[in-house]
Specification:
Number of helices of chain A: 0
Distance between the termini of chain B: 38 Å
Number of strands of chain A: 11
Shape of chain B: globular
Structural class of chain A: mainly beta
Strand content of chain B: over 45%
Largest interface: A-B, 27 and 27 residues
Largest sheet of chain A: 7 strands, mixed
Structural class of chain B: mainly beta
Strand content of chain A: over 45%
Number of helices of chain B: 0
Radius of gyration of chain B: 13 Å
Helix content of chain A: under 10%
Distance between the termini of chain A: 36 Å
Number of strands of chain B: 11
Radius of gyration of chain A: 13 Å
Order of helices and strands of chain B: EEEEEEEEEEE
Oligomer: heterodimer
Chain lengths: ~110, ~110
């Protein structure tokens, strides 16, 4: 049981480039989330999904897009990368219900230069 | 006023000390309270989960919630060097699609 898997672990992008951060979970969780974590700033919600085909914006969605075509996968797309998107990105999933918290992936460390 | 306030520390204690970590919040809709532990360059992992006011104990860890004061705490007894990590409080409101609001995290170092 792999849990939540994120790829790549590290990436350096040039300003204006695009990329997709991959996230896959094998726990059949309904809910999936993308957070970014900046030093001293905690975790900020970018986008979330309550099931396949359903996505919604979080606190900081600008510059990002998501899709959820299957229960397992929730990729995050960065278009026209900017230095402000330098951060550590975490994907998380949660089963339907309020008593289980989140399972996080190990993160993608992105630098935009 | 931010929804969740957490002192970022850093906090440095000797091995065996009792550690107290705290968060305050302003949103009365928060019903569920969690503590996550995050080791360096790793994802957060759920440590404690509480719903009602009061205490919940799990081994050396005790989570405390005071809804009337909008204040939560995590106590670590007999702290160990392996407890060195960043501790994040997180809160969830009913009907929020299980979205969590996180504190900024407190960096704890336990010195042997």
């Amino acid at each position: 049981n792999a849990g939540v898997t994120q790829t790549p672990k590290f990436r350096i992008l040039k300003i204006g480039q695009s990329m997709t951060l991959q996230c896959t979970q094998d726990m059949n969780h309904n809910y999936m989330y993308w957070y970014r974590q900046d030093p001293g700033m905690g975790l900020k919600l970018i986008y979330y999904s309550v099931g396949a085909g359903i996505t919604d914006k979080g606190e900081v969605p600008n510059g990002y897009n998501v899709s959820r075509s299957t229960t397992e996968d929730f990729p995050l797309r960065l278009e026209l990368a900017a230095p402000s998107q330098t951060s550590v990105y975490f994907c998380a999933s949660s089963i339907l219900g309020e008593n289980y918290g989140y399972t996080f992936g190990s993160g993608t460390r992105l630098t935009v230069v | 006023q931010k929804e969740v306030e957490q002192d970022p520390g850093p906090l440095s204690v000797p091995e065996g000390a009792i550690v107290s970590l705290n968060c305050t919040y302003s949103n009365s809709a928060f019903q569920y309270f969690m503590w996550y532990r995050q080791y360096s360059r790793k994802g957060p992992e759920l440590l404690m989960y509480t719903y009602s006011s009061g205490n919940k104990e799990d081994g050396r860890f005790t989570a405390q919630v005071d809804k009337s004061s909008k204040y939560i705490s995590l106590f670590i007894r007999d702290s160990q060097p392996s407890d060195s990590a960043t501790y994040l409080c997180a809160m969830q409101g009913r009907g929020s699609n299980y979205k969590l609001t996180f504190g900024k995290g407190t960096l704890l170092t336990v010195n042997p």
